[in-house]
Amino acid sequence: MKNYATIVLANQEISPSIFRMRILAPGFAAAAQPGQFVMLRPALALPTMLRRPFGVFRTGCLPPECDGLPPREYMEILYKVVGQGTKILSELHQGDRIELLGPLGRGFDLGPPGQEKILVGGGIGLVPLFMLGEALVAQGSRVRLLMGGRTRDDILAVTEFERSGVETYVSTDDGSLGEAGFVTKVLERKLSKYPQAEVFACGPTPMLTAVAAICAARQVNLQVSLEAHMACGVGACLGCVVKGAGHSESTPRYLCTCKAGPVFQASDLDWGKATAEAAINCGGGCK
Amino acid sequence: MNSIRPSLAVEVAGLKLKNPVMPASGTFGYGEEYAPYLDLNRLGAIVTKGLSRNPKAGNPTPRIAETTSGMLNAIGLQNVGIDAFIAGKVPYYRGLQTPVIANFFGNTLEEYGEVARKLNDVPEVTAVELNISCPNVKQGGIVFGTEASAASQVVTLVRQALNKPLIVKLTPNVTDITVIARAVEEAGADAISCINTITGMAIDVRTRKPKIANRTGGLSGPAIRPVAVRMTHQVVQAVKIPVIGIGGITCAEDALEFLIVGAKAVQVGTANFIDPQAMLAIIAGLEQFLVAEGLSDINQVIGSLKI
Questions:
Q1: Which residues touch A122 (CB under 8 Å, ≥6 apart)?
Q2: Minimal Cα–Cα distance from B26 to chain A, Å?
Q3: Which residues of B touch A (CB under 8 A)?
Q4: For the residues B275-287, what does the mean pLDDT come to?
């Protein structure tokens, strides 16, 4: 990982309150594993001080012929404006300075190639699934992406996901896009058809809890990507812990989301009521 | 222009430091966590996460919340315990050329004594910092840090168990910090570090809940710096032993405020989270300040306050 003092290449509202930011990041693509994240803050004296964690959406390179400049590697995040920190980010413009620390954390374990893979993304939780989908397709796996959201505004970057070679299945709570209902309904159906599949999920806590219950009941392997409030991102502050499997009042077991995660084997986590309190909500920005 | 680089070296309680900048306990893990981001040997010293006799799992979550120019934390002194520290973390220090200061705490006098004796036998630990000031656990030392007699008792006991430089870290959550400072000096402390975090609280107005599970937490960051400078100044006036200033330092100018009021060294905390290389920038900034001021030695700045 590297500590970049770099610039914003683009920052655009792609859906109400949802932004896509492109950041100049030479050398990032080679280092980034699917499921990793970055810590960002605008390089200005501002009302917020700490960096915010964001899942990496994808990486790329601007070709030299664009504007006569040499090729420029970049990385992208998709984030939701949820508080003051993300509000300030959303107001940055091309050329504004930004500080990026990353890629950080433990990403997804791709598992054996050729296996059926089911990706479940809820809203902004779709973010870390893009590079995962790409990597799984590249290793020769068949990838089905179940995209869930409350409304059509939560279904992000469908065309881009499709172009990456994954099959997409859209569902929304209000039926405004794709099938009406929860994404977990689609998951149950797919798992009945492909009981040997491995599942990868990222999304709001209630969704993840439901996905974990479904996978546990069917004895299907599940990896989840979590989000937590973080100060350092490197395992020093111990502010981002989640409860691990076997956690109890008398034998507490906390895992750092930034260091042991953000991707965990679902079986390593405590899926009791307590986990829901840990402000887990995937992929996008936290307050 | 003077071609000789100015000296940043300071001496604190017999510890020779190449510069006066070190991390504050709890913001730098055990040191190794930050090794990918900066050369630890460039720091004046390394200060570990607080250690206890038994491992501690820490507080429930959420544990942190950002506030205006600061952050609240109630981590709850999560640490691996003294034995796992010695077995698992200490070997890493062997290759380092910078002093390692082990911070520790106890729930009881016996625990303080036991950890002190164990640390005394670890040659890689150059000095210790006695935490009698964590605000976030019921018995995390604050009972010892808020009463002069209790502070004196624990420092006396640790002093007897230890042949290494003993730094005592004080809490600001007291009526008069100089009373505690004098008590720990008399009990045998070699140096004082101050301040620990200031107890605070923040509320999520939508849920009506405290933003951290512990309800209250310790406030750190630039928001507390003027309080910390004031208290450092008061402690420097009150005692003869050296003082290490802590509280909201993010840049060289912030560090200089503490040095000018008389701190021999400074600790950098929250700024490490904002920028893992913050301490290197502070060290470089101190050198630049000396050059710009035409000074050759940082000791010319220490205690140079004009009133």
A1: A148, A149, A154, A183, A201, A202, A203, A204, A207, A208, A282
A2: 7
A3: 26-29, 33-34, 36-37, 57-58, 60-66, 68-71, 73, 75, 78, 213, 221-222, 270, 272-277
A4: 97
For the segment A77-101, the average pLDDT, to the nearest whole number, is: 91
- Give B78's contacts in chain A (Cβ within 8 Å): 238, 241, 254
Distance from CA of B19 to the nearest CA of A (A): 23
Query: Which of A41, A49, A253 should we substitute to test contact with B (largest number of B Cβ atoms within 10 Å)?
Result: A49
Residue A277 has pLDDT above 50, yes or no: no
Which range of residues forms the domain containing residue A214? Answer: 116-276
Q: Is there a domain that residue A208 lies in?
A: yes
Q: How many domains does chain B have?
A: 1
Which of the 8 DSSP states describes residue B216?
E
Q: Residue B258 sits in a domain of what CATH number?
A: 3.20.20.70
pLDDT in tens, A118-157: 999 999 999 999 999 999 999 999 999 999 999 999 999 9
Residues B102-127, buried b or exposed e (16+ Cβ, 10 A)? Answer: bbbbbbeeebbbbbbebbeebeebbb
pTM above 0.90, yes or no: no
pLDDT tens digit sequence for B261-280? 999 999 999 999 999 999 99
Same structural domain, A99 and A120: no
Range of the domain at B213: 10-300
Which pLDDT value is given to residue A62? 85
- How many angstroms separate the CA atoms of A157 and B258, rounded? 51
pLDDT classification of B4: cutoffs 50, 70, 90: confident
Nearest CA in chain A to B73: A239
Same domain, A60 and A134: no
Which positions in chain A touch B46 (Cβ < 8 Å)? none
| Nearest alpha-carbon partner for A78 in A121, A109, A119, A30 | A121
Q: Which of A44, A75, A104 is the last residue of a domain?
A: A104
ipTM: 0.86
CA A161 to chain centre: 14
> What CA–CA distance (Å, rounded) separates B135 from B127?
23
Residue A283, domain member (yes or no):
no
